Amino acid sequence: MSQHPTRRRRAGLQEAVPCFDASGCAVAARELRSRAVRHGLQALDEMETLQLLVARAAPRRAAALAERLMVRFGGLAHVLGASLPELLQVVDESVALELKLLQDATRRVLEFPMRRRSILSSWSAVADYLRISLSGQSRESFRVLFLDRRNGLIADELMGAGTVDHAPVYPREVARRALELAASSCCLAHNHPSGDPSPSKADVEMTRQVVEACRTLGLAVHDHFLVAGDQVVSFRAAGLM
Predict the structure, then answer these.
(1) Which pairing describes strands 220-228 and 185-191: parallel, antiparallel, or unpaired?
(2) HEC string of 35-87?
(3) pLDDT of 25
C-alpha cells in the first residue's frame, strides 16, 4: 500500500518522512501543488517548498531528497546559497542544477533594475540583490559591483573566495579590474556566514586599503556592504568609511 509522507519533528526541524514508494511521492507532490494553487505559495512551509522544487528534477525521490538537503544545510536560504560542489555532495547533478538555476534566475531579475538606474538611489534594490547573491553561503565571498559614470551596474564580479571567516582581497586587483571594465566607481560587498552583522577590524582595514588603491587611479568606492543572514549593513551609513 502507498503511504504519503508524514510530518515529524527532530532537533527543532520539521521534516518529511521519505515516501515508501514512487506513487506515494507523486501523490504528495500533486497535493502540494494543489494546495499552493488553492491557498497561495505562502501555504507551504520551507520543507514543502523545497520538495516541490526538487520534484521538478526528481519527482520520485523529492520528499527524501528535500529532507536530506534540509538536514545538511539547515534551511531553504542555505540550500539555495550552497555552491554546486556542496549540493553535489547531497543530491545528483539534475537536482543541484535545478536549485542553482532558481537562485541564478532570481539574481538576474534583481540585477536588471540596477543596470538601468543609479544604484546609489536604490538601496532596497541593492540590498535585495546582495541577499540573494551572498546570503546562505557557507564561506566568505568578496564581490565588487563595478559602476559606470551614472552609477549604473556594469558588472558584479567575485574577487575573493575563502573560508568560513575570511576571504582574501587584493586591492590592486580590484583597481586593475575597474580600469579594464572602464568603471568610474564601485561598491564592495562581502558576507559573514556566521550571521554576525558586525564588521570586523580586518573588514574595516581591508576597506581602507581598497579605497586607497582606487583613489590613486581616480576611482571612487561608494560603499561596502556586509551581508549577514537577512541583514545588509552599509559601512558608509555606519561611519566606517
Answers:
(1) parallel
(2) HHHHHCHHHCCHHHHHHHHHHCCCCCCHHHHHHHHHHHHCCHHHHHHCCHHHH
(3) 63
Lowest mean pLDDT among 101-110, 114-123, 152-161, 197-206: 114-123
What's the confidence (pLDDT) of residue 181? 96
Structure-model confidence comparison of residues 43 and 235, the more confident one: 235
Distance CA 179, CA 200 (A): 28
Q: What is the pTM of this model?
A: 0.71
Q: How far apart are CA 126 and CA 234, in angstroms?
A: 11
CB 214 within 8 A of CB 175: yes
- Report the chain's terminal Cα–Cα distance, integer Å: 65
Chain-centre distance for alpha carbon 177: 23
| Domains, the chain, with CATH or none | 7-106 (1.10.150.20), 116-234 (3.40.140.10)
Residue 81: other Cβ atoms inside 10 A: 21
